[in-house]
Amino acid sequence: MCSCLESSEQLNQLSSRLLSGKVTQAQKDSLIQLRAETAKKCLNYQTMSGEEMLKRKADCQ
Length: 61
What we know:
The chain is mainly alpha-helical. The protein has one domain (about 1-60). The chain has three helices and no strands.
């Protein structure tokens, strides 16, 4: 779960940076790769209840 959260945070940060300026092909490629990695890391948690997710998130901090 922790790796899913970390990857999601990295994806959010990269997406925010890309929205604020011109995007290069290398940045697009990084975004695509990070999306794929995040999807893979978070696959087992997609159907988890919000309550369970919050418990696991607390364990990561």
